[in-house]
Amino acid sequence: MSLASKVTLAVSFVVSGGIIGYVHLKQTTDREKLHEGVVRDVERQQRRKMENTYTLQKQIDLTKQLKQMQTQEGDVNTTGT
Questions:
Q1: Rounded CA gap, 14 and 20, in Å?
Q2: What's the CA gap between 40 and 7, in Å, rounded?
Q3: How far is residue 32's CA from residue 39's CA, in Å, rounded to a whole number?
Q4: In tens digits, what is the pLDDT along the chain, a chain of 81 residues?
C-alpha cells in the first residue's frame, strides 16, 4: 500500500469519526433542549393555574362584598320607607 493511500485512509477515518461524534453530540444537545422546553411548558401551565385560581378567588371575594353591600342597601331602603 502506498503512502498516499495510507494517508487517504487515515484522513477518511478521522473525518468519519468526527462526523459521527458531531452527530451524537448534536442529538444529545437537541434532546436536552426539547426536555427544557417541556419543563418550561409545565412550569408555565402551573403558573397560569395559580394565577387563574387567584383571580377566581378575588372574583368570589368581590361577589361576596357586592352581595353584602346590596343586602345592606336593601335593609336601609326597607327601614327607610
A1: 10
A2: 49
A3: 11
A4: 899 999 999 999 999 999 999 999 999 999 999 999 999 999 999 999 999 999 999 999 999 999 999 988 877 776 655
> Cell numbers 477515518 label which residue?
13
Instruction: Please report where in the chains the cell 336593601 appears, as a residue.
Output: 74
Nine cell digits for residue 22? 458531531
Question: pTM for the whole thing?
Answer: 0.57
Q: How many CA atoms lie within 13 A of 54 on its CB side?
A: 6
Neighbours of 67 (CB within 10 A): 10
* Cell triple for 17: 469519526
| Residue carrying C-alpha cell 378575588 | 58
Amino acid of residue 58:
K
